[in-house]
Design a protein that fits this description.
By secondary structure, the chain is α/β, with parallel strands linked by helices. It is built from 17 helices and eleven strands.
Length: 384
């Protein structure tokens, strides 16, 4: 299987795997695809460690990094992020009513509050929130480009000029995700080399247009720039359908969440295995922007009448990700309330994710099913 993106990136299969887990990234790259590490949760030092580990594992095979650089964030967070206090200033920018709501939520579900002194001493272990500023993202871009990556992706919105300039200087292709044809036009004008057309079925930040409608529209809009199809793609049949729509390959994220290597907590993985395609929701409760995730008590409460409403990005991330770390920690000990609250970003293809297997096997299964689907279509054509 050879397409334009295979030739361009030196990969065997036009299968791009987005994951926050370095093990998944390395496994997919070594299996012939191209793994892409989501960097939003990392500090620059931690990202350096992760990329160095991947470098050692893939032996020069291509992989990518995805950096979240939103075009608009909460104004108070932007001001706080410029100061020396960093996370402390952002925490202070969160309204008291949101902390009160969160503490009441913990009490309602019988989840003990975290040790705030311990949390304070380890707060830099994860950079989500503090890295979602221009300054924070720029530091991650610099770390990424210091490694032999094959691409750098802008996860949300048009990549800032500094990202494009630094990547072009380093000879690294820039990729960006879009949810409309108009978004795609803006990305091309910004200098993006590869477009990911992500339908509303996708996990994480996503729009509302379905993959089946979005992909051909974006392909026609940006030609001859190659387009990857994304959004609810978890099988080889869907991969074949995407190529029939004009895509040069596929970009998958959710399907890796139930692999053996994934970072998904066991209790959340169990929820995914049991879930159907209707068990997800687009909610602002985790990041401040609409992001598809598993329905849970967490989404129910933040979308409910008693909620003060989600904050803008990245303040909602500051509140939610810190809370979710405690929820997952307690859930692992069997706390039922924590398990009700626990969730994670995942697309509607969760209904197809029914087994746990190695990431490498997921790649091979998708490619085998893709070949079967193409052969079936060829048989139909010959019969006609």
């Amino acid at each position: 299987m050879r397409t334009e993106v295979c030739e361009r990136f030196g990969i065997e299969f036009p299968l791009f795997a987005f994951s926050h887990c370095r093990d998944v990234v390395a496994a997919v790259t070594n299996a012939g695809g191209l793994g892409v590490l989501g960097a939003v949760a990392y500090t620059p030092d931690r990202l350096e460690e992760e990329l160095s580990w991947i470098d050692d594992q893939v032996g020069g095979r291509p992989y990518g990094v995805d950096v979240l650089v939103p075009s608009k964030i909460d104004e108070s967070a932007e001001k706080a992020g410029r100061g020396e206090a960093g996370l402390d200033a952002m925490l202070a920018a969160v309204p008291q009513e949101h902390w009160t709501f969160l503490f009441q939520l913990f009490e309602k579900y019988g989840v003990p509050l975290p040790d705030f002194e311990m949390a304070k001493s380890t707060r830099d272990a994860k950079g989500a929130g503090t890295q979602v500023t221009k300054e924070g993202a720029t530091a991650l871009i610099d770390v990424s480009l210091a490694h032999p990556i094959g691409l750098i992706a802008s996860a949300l919105g048009t990549p800032p000029p500094i990202m494009v300039e630094k990547a072009k200087t380093a000879g690294i292709p820039v990729t960006a995700l879009v949810g409309t044809a108009e978004h795609a036009r803006r990305q091309v004008a910004a200098g993006v080399d590869l477009i990911v057309a992500q339908g509303g079925e996708a996990g994480g930040h996503t729009g509302e247009i379905s993959t089946m409608v979005l992909v051909p529209e974006v392909v026609d809009t940006v030609a001859p720039i190659p387009v990857l199809a994304a959004g609810g793609i978890a099988t080889g049949r869907q991969m074949a359908a995407s190529m029939a729509l004009g895509a040069a390959g596929v970009w998958c994220g959710s399907v890796w969440l139930t692999t053996e290597e994934a970072e998904t907590p066991p209790h959340v993985r169990a929820k995914m295995i049991a879930a159907g395609s209707r068990d997800t929701i687009r909610s602002r409760s985790r990041t401040g922007k609409p992001a598809r995730q598993l329905k849970s008590a967490w989404t129910d409460e933040w979308e409910g009448p008693a909620s003060p409403g989600a904050l803008g990005m990245p303040l909602q991330m500051i509140v939610a990700e810190g809370a979710m770390r405690q929820i997952n920690k307690v859930a692992e000990s069997g706390n039922e309330g924590a398990r009700e609250l626990a969730n994670y970003f995942v697309g509607q293809c969760v209904g197809l994710m029914n087994t746990v297997k190695p990431a490498r096997q997921v790649v091979y299964d998708m490619i085998e099913e893709f070949a079967d689907a193409v052969e079936r279509l060829n048989t139909i054509t010959e019969a006609d």
